[in-house]
Every structure is written in structure tokens, then in C-alpha cells.
Amino acid sequence: MKEVQVNELQELLNSFANKDVYIHLETTNGAYASHFDERVFNAGAFIRNVKIRYELAKIISDTPHRVGLKMNHGWVYAQGITHYELDDKGRLLMAGLDFTGKLAVALEISETPFSY
Amino acid sequence: MSLQPQRQILVVFPHPDDEAFSSAGTIRLYRNMGVPVTYACLTLGEMGRNLGNPPFATRESLPEIRREELKAACEVMGIDDLRMMGLRDKTVEFEDDEKMVSLVKDLIDELNPSLIITFLPGYSVHPDHEATARAVFETVRRMPKENRPTIYAVGFANNTVAEKGAPTVQIDVSSVKLDKVKALQAHASQTAWMIEENTKRSDEGQPMSDSWLHYERFYQVDLED
Description:
The structure holds two protein chains of two kinds. By secondary structure, chain A is mainly beta. Chain A is 12% helix and 51% strand.
């Protein structure tokens, strides 16, 4: 993955619009967050291999970036995106890596299902 | 304390590297004695957060990296029977409870272990650790008393010693300390930052306490109810 280049990522997001795509969306502060610091409220969400179809995608140029997908009847968005790549299977993998290199958020889009 | 003789050991943990932190020295010592050890690793740590910045992996490429790290760690520990059980990281607790018991029961029926090494229910912090421990304990509880293996359980929640007392088994792994370090290093995607941090502290004249490289501590559980 490389650091976000807004124009290039916007084009990649556009390339999946109006297609049936599988998404992976994840936010986390780590399973150990409240073990290391009991003041931390541990929360996260995870969804994988849900099929959606979006008509509009937008990346906002603030850093870290926000990416929003507008669907016919709803929304998907991720906040904190820093890196991305189009992998060798043609999947658009976006991630938000914190200052220590730990994943805080991930949004991935693929025309084929992700593994289990 | 000296190692209790064992016929067969079954190690059950959910994540590649759980075994290295908690038990690598103990496993190596038993392997040096010729005791067979099977490691059932339930997931590939697919949801590991450490991808680096700049990143060395993606969410999708991490599992294959960790699979190879796990194999390398097992080589260091002398484990030649590694079972990768195919569950997904952070979902173990949501699996059907009876399916989890069956998974453990099949391993016990096949291997007839005299000792199982796993986590301590209620004191193992990560939801996958807890789910793994629950499945193992429940499976053993359902066995006829005379057939039940001993369990060495790893507990490290902040309240463990306060509530459970000191671990009842302390194994001196000093003689295989380097193997334990190598097993940890094999899981580089998970431990490189830690090893780097320790090196830095040593450079500053403040070596991290390495007592955990000399002793491995467990709660021995012989289920009687």
C-alpha cells in the first residue's frame, strides 16, 4: 500500500461504481486496548463480504482521508484512510494506519468475494 | 519445578504467536525430551493490527505472512504436528459453542493428550482467547474423570494474580531461552516492534525485565467436577 493520492484513488473508486461489489469494512482500537489502558472504551465494527452497489464515491482531501460511498438506499463511509493499493486480484484495499503502523480502519472493495 | 512426565501434549491457542509468548520454552523442553506436541492454532491472526507505517502488508496479505511465520516458529519449537484450524481471527466467540467443543473433542479423541496447554477462562483478555479456553474446558469437563488430561492454563488479565493467586506451575526455561527468542522473532509481523523496543532500552542501559524469558507460568487445572 502507498500513501493516498487523492486523484488516483478517486479514479479507482469511480471504477467500481454501478457494479455489484463486495466490501470489507472494519474499525478497531485493538482487542487489548482496555487491557493496556483501562480508561479506554473498546469499540469496533466489522463487516466482510457484503455485496453492495454504489452510485457515487468520494474521497475528501483532508488527511487522514474520509471515503464515502453513496448507495441507492444508504451509505458506507470510512474515516481515517491513509494508504491504499489495487492488489494483484484487482481489489481496492484502503487502510488507515496510525502513527505506530497499526491498522485503525479498513475499507476494501472487490468484484469477487474476499476469502473467508 | 521439574517438568512432569507427559505422554502427549496438545497446545490449543487461537493466534499465531500466542504459543511463542506463553509456552515456547516449555514446548521446546518437552520436545527435547521426545514428548510429542500437537499445536492446534485456530486462526491465522487475520485481523492483526500491525501492518507497519509504511506498511509491509495489507489486511488481505497478512494471513499468508502469518502462516509462514507460524510454520517457522513451530520449527524452532520442534513442533512437527501443526494443525491450522481455519477459523477467522476475532470471530471465535461467535462460532457455535457445540461446534467448538466438537473441534476440541476430535483432537482429544485422536491424540489422547496427557496435558493440554491453553488459556485460563475469565483471565485471558482477548475474546478469542476466552472462547478457546471455554471450548477446551467444556470439552474436558464432559470427559469421564479418569480420562481427563491435565490443563496448563495461561492467565494474564490484570486481575489474575489478585483473584487466582500466583500461577501454580512455574517452568524454568532458561536453558532454551534462545529458542524462545527465536520463536518470538519468527513471528516478526507481530513482535518486531517489541524486539526493537527492547534493543533500544538495552542501548539506553535499561533492559526490559527478561524474567518472562526465564520462566513460563501456568495455572494447573485438574477438573474434578
